[in-house]
Amino acid sequence: MTATPTEMMTIAAARLLSDTDVCFVGIGAPSAACNLARLTHAPKITLIYESGTLSTRPTVLPLSIGDGELCDTALTTVAVPEMFRYWLQGGRITIGFLGGAQIDRFANLNTTVVGPYDAPKVRLPGGGGAPEIASNCGQIFITMAMGTRAFVEKLPFITSFGHGTGKGDRAALGLTTKGPTKIMTDLCVLEPDPQTAELTVVSLHPGVTREQVQAGCAWPLRFAADVTETPAATEQELSVLRDLHARTRQAHGVAA
Amino acid sequence: MTATPTEMMTIAAARLLSDTDVCFVGIGAPSAACNLARLTHAPKITLIYESGTLSTRPTVLPLSIGDGELCDTALTTVAVPEMFRYWLQGGRITIGFLGGAQIDRFANLNTTVVGPYDAPKVRLPGGGGAPEIASNCGQIFITMAMGTRAFVEKLPFITSFGHGTGKGDRAALGLTTKGPTKIMTDLCVLEPDPQTAELTVVSLHPGVTREQVQAGCAWPLRFAADVTETPAATEQELSVLRDLHARTRQAHGVAA
Amino acid sequence: MAEFVSLAQGIEAVVSDGCSVAMEGFTHLIPHAAGHETIRQGKRRLTLIRMTPDLIYDQLIGTGCAEKLIFSWGGNPGVGSLHRFRDAVENGWPHKLEIEEHSHAAMANAYEAGAANLPFAAFRGYKGVDLPSVNPQIRSVTCPYSGEVLATVPAIRPDAAIIHALKADREGNVLLEGIVGVQKEAVLAAKRSLVTVEEIVDDFGPRNANAVILPSWAVTAIAHVPGGAYPSYAHGYYKRANDFYIAWDKIARERDTFLSWIKDNVLDKGPDVFARHALSTREAA
Amino acid sequence: MAEFVSLAQGIEAVVSDGCSVAMEGFTHLIPHAAGHETIRQGKRRLTLIRMTPDLIYDQLIGTGCAEKLIFSWGGNPGVGSLHRFRDAVENGWPHKLEIEEHSHAAMANAYEAGAANLPFAAFRGYKGVDLPSVNPQIRSVTCPYSGEVLATVPAIRPDAAIIHALKADREGNVLLEGIVGVQKEAVLAAKRSLVTVEEIVDDFGPRNANAVILPSWAVTAIAHVPGGAYPSYAHGYYKRANDFYIAWDKIARERDTFLSWIKDNVLDKGPDVFARHALSTREAA
């Protein structure tokens, strides 16, 4: 079995998670990654969805942030104001997952508009929980497929703050959390450079070239001194992930 | 059967309550009055205790603000921050009951200290819920036994605000609630004068004289133009109240 | 005390032209039947308030009921865009839609402040982002102890809140359970409220001492509308109709397919059509 | 993840000389056994925080553990005074006690703000009263929208929170039920926490979807102390010992009867003595 690029993105994200993590999970790749981790090497990982479900253990992936499955398998479910006040703002989440329509080289994200805010070319859904997930979680993992319309030189709108214009900007705003530390894409893994906070390719997924990665990014990408190859998906990772998706399809009657 | 002065105080308070009232109840006479009303003419009255019990219907009187009986018979029980934020500050309580160690002629109350705050002669329990009950409930009923150490010329400390130094003081502070509208004592009922807000005797309990009432008050008391006699306790009022106290004694093994 | 009414009476009683309405439900218990009734009654110039506008507001916006939208995330969850919302914002169809945009944290805090009768809420948010530059309602306050500057949001105090709940009892108390979202706060923050329910029971029976219940005297009106959350869901009654959420993408993409769907499924129908959703999926729930 | 410990280990782990401690429980679930253990370990210079100091703090104050008290109502509920508290404030025995006094509304808001990681809370309170003139921590903030001036209180962020709860499961999750007070907020507001429980169960089993639960990763330590709330109560386990509350008035009135009671019932005993309170009254609960 060989992983598809999307599977590789999910698996790379799952590997970063451990039993002691408390994750604020979004729908899609983050949800798949977190549950893959839970079903493989991190059975005790704590998953939280913004709908209020604490320590949830879904057997199939939810299609929405508030599926009944999340509530049924949760330790308990709290009201949404409590979720944002006591749990997210309370500083009790170690890892927040984010994605977006667009990202820049300092891992700032846009999910609000393309074009001017008052007369947008494309009106995107907006920030939702993202602005405060980005500032209140211990660190942020981002999952996004590459492409030059997604990895852009300049964002038309900053919906959630990554590293601003470079290292030190978070601290200058009084943020004590780490912000984005890992960006998992379908082609590679990037990390902010320790000196500049600019996103830097640290590993290429099996079979992916530097040229392919650059072709998916509108700014000239930096590569780490020692770019490695992302370890290939194991048989176990792939089969657990595919089983999870199959169970999900069966449960929902639709693709997850 | 003839009511004791304390019973008369409780009964006079109970008569003021109706099915549509939502009462914030304190322990002692207020609790007895509210439950007497509920067991006689106001079966649908809503009782709330600051421990978080909403719409509670105890069969015996609680000895503390947080007895299990209150929770067992409540519609539901909320956390204390919610009680003070959504329910009391939310403006959802029509009547708050207060008492105190001392009251002045404008129905301000002291339950904090006798003597200087920093070197008190007597340290009283303090305000508890009273300061915000006094400002956030639609109106306040006060139950207190008379006596010259309780009905004083000047309070050493204002724990909860009644009518300040007279009519208009509440409005000047931005308070839109009525404040104390009825003071039920063991001897009489007082109301703030419509023009001055000074407490004025409006009815004397059966057999009580003006002299007896004045003897229980350190300032020269005003009497309304048409002081009436508080209607005597009915057989039903007295028997329901005494049954309630008897059930309470039996349940708790102590006096209530 | 809450009054028991028909859905049509309930919408008439709580929603008037030009008023502000919060129809809440966080994925779970979205009051779709109430949204349809609002469209049928042709309400206009509404300020619609909701964290996640979702299909219910896509329909209200597309039928011209809304003048303004206060929101924090406007998408079709797990599917993509809300096309009617986008058409209104991008092209002004059927007319221009004013928007006031916040984050989830801000909206959740704003409902909480509304329920608590406070004029605003302070929270740690919006650091380094662009939303405050386009929303003048995002302001700040300085902590009188630490000097820290916190973001603020005005309390949400809607004229009307509309929610869907599991059960009401005969006294008009309302039981919520599962993903309870911001519904309790929305009702407590509003001047008047309508609750549609799956079921009216004599008594809630044995329950957790801390069950999430709105007492009768905190609710204006209750309408019995089984299935009234469809295509959203009611925990223990019926499941979320994920296929409809997917189908909506196609229905709402073009104005004419949208309008013909509204005619066939909203204007020409009544609240009773929701009952079949409750029945058809009850066993699967 | 919460660690399972003995009560003695738990107090050693979370309470140190000079730290601030909130032992909460609103009439229900007051952690009396933990208070006794704190006395036995001879902790000193504590800042004690609690809405209703109650007997538990009367004992800690009378044995000289406390340097400062932050509170909102200091009485023996339904009985009268807390004599040891009064003796400390009125006469400085066993030494002077600094007090920081608030109202219940302020304290409840301050715990809530602490749990939410905010530096302060704003609320509608203290209008026209004298407490702000003697407590410099009562300040104000102006609403950036309405201009209204609201009272503020600093968030409570204790070094340690100690509560008593009904059950913990094997993973260290903690279940509260009934009158839940401010206990959840106190634990979430604190740097570290100790929860004493009536019972440790394999699994909480079927429960309300919105049960009040503190997850294991939000709790520092759990000690199994059946009866540990006595003379307060644990809903469904044993009732409040009203007779002891009444008896306390006499015990605590004089210094020597108090000290001899402490010696006989606290210093010369261990946490195991609480178990009999659970057993003896279980059937009556």
From TrEMBL, chains A, B:
The keyword Transferase applies. PANTHER family: ACETATE COA-TRANSFERASE YDIF, CHOLESTEROL RING-CLEAVING HYDROLASE IPDB SUBUNIT. Keywords: Transferase. GO terms for molecular function: CoA-transferase activity. This is 3-oxoadipate:succinyl-CoA transferase. Pfam families: CoA_trans. It comes from Bosea vaviloviae. InterPro entries: CoA_trans_fam_I (IPR004165), NagB/RpiA_transferase-like (IPR037171). SUPFAM superfamilies: NagB/RpiA/CoA transferase-like (SSF100950).
From TrEMBL, chains C, D:
GO terms for molecular function: CoA-transferase activity. Keywords: Transferase. This is 3-oxoadipate:succinyl-CoA transferase. It comes from Bosea vaviloviae. The lineage of its organism: Bacteria, Pseudomonadati, Pseudomonadota, Alphaproteobacteria, Hyphomicrobiales. SMART domains: CoA_trans (SM00882). Pfam families: CoA_trans.
